[in-house]
Write a structure and sequence with these properties.
homodimer, 211 residues, alpha+beta, Pnp Oxidase, Chain A, seven-stranded antiparallel β-sheet, 5 helices
């Protein structure tokens, strides 16, 4: 096994370290965040830091790093109070990846990467038409993570829109059926297949495992 | 497409809502968190909320919900200041799942689920011997998320231990080679295969996409 201490991680080249440390938390969800500025300029950006916070109320977090990357998504969320989270599927993974290029604010990634903006009811922020699982989010709170200048954005689900056929009787969603993907590191995308579904873990049901 | 408003989500049954809302953020990383109490009782628990916070310094976050589930992991982290993050692989996914059963504090999940505790150097918290990608974490900070009583735990990587062969020349880690898995919803686990790796997204390299 290869062993890096904290000191050795600090001494790695910036590029190598970024790839390594972005790889080792495991697979990450692949989502596009859709926003609009107060003057009507839309923005779309790939994020791998979306995290479930709670089901009741239905809250989702995501980490933004306003100091190191263009702030369009973050600024639009603060300015309008709304954003969308849209699953990335195999069919448009390359388009989704290139939304992370450093486009001018006046160039919408919907246009440059040829993904269709979709407006639902009177919700302000644009959804991704091509996405089969998407959420309209109301911004609730930002929590600064002072230790490295990142920010936890917390939002509440106002609209949840997904293909009806993929919702199971128990509420579980079959993400494999719509070929949602996941991210490894910064630039690698992976497809996903079912492995196992287990019953709710209770002490009396624990199998008789062996080493 | 099926459309749930916030109001309709609130009116769902608790079980259905938990499954649905835990499914829709996309695939989640599958990790085991290893801890030890001040009196030497080890604990192991599956978490799907691990999130990359930054590479320099190398920081990782995770969400804990001390109000709703047993607090052993959280209490041990606060008491000792150390914990481990260990990838779950296909070979021990069922053992990993059942660590979430509500065992007594005196029953270590290492024993009940037959995973081997491993101690590295003089690091306090136990690693999972069977895991091929694992981190020894130093607890830095907890940030309360008052809106729903969850907590963001922030830690710094003190030791990063992984199979040397899976580290690419650029620092990217081949998680598929060690069959790391991901989580969907609360009880479903998925296997992962390579889909695509793209170059760093620059405006001048954006392909000529079509709708």
């Amino acid at each position: 096994m290869k062993h890096f201490t904290n000191q050795e991680i600090q001494e790695l080249s910036k590029y190598y370290r970024a790839n390594l440390i972005n790889s080792i938390t495991g697979y990450k969800p692949a989502n596009l965040i859709g926003t609009i500025s107060e003057t009507g300029e839309t923005n779309l950006a790939v994020f791998s830091s979306v995290v479930h916070l709670g089901a009741n109320p239905a809250l989702i977090g995501m980490i933004v790093r306003p100091a190191s990357v263009p702030r369009h998504t973050y600024e639009n969320i603060l300015a309008t109070g709304y954003y969308t989270i849209n699953h990335i599927h195999e069919s448009f993974v390359e388009k989704a990846h290139f939304t992370s290029a450093n486009f001018d604010r006046s160039d919408s990634e919907f246009d440059t990467c040829k993904l269709q903006a979709q407006y639902i009811d009177d919700f302000k922020a644009p959804f991704v038409q091509e996405s089969q699982v998407k959420m309209g989010m109301k911004f609730l709170q930002e929590i600064p993570i002072e230790i490295n200048g990142t920010i936890l954005i917390i939002g509440q689900i106002e609209h949840l829109i997904l293909l009806g056929e993929i919702i199971g009787e128990d509420g579980n969603v079959d993400l494999e059926a719509v070929e949602s993907i996941c991210v490894s590191g910064l630039e690698s995308y992976s497809k996903v297949g079912k492995l196992a579904k287990f019953e709710y873990a209770r002490v009396k049901n624990v199998p008789d495992f062996e080493y």
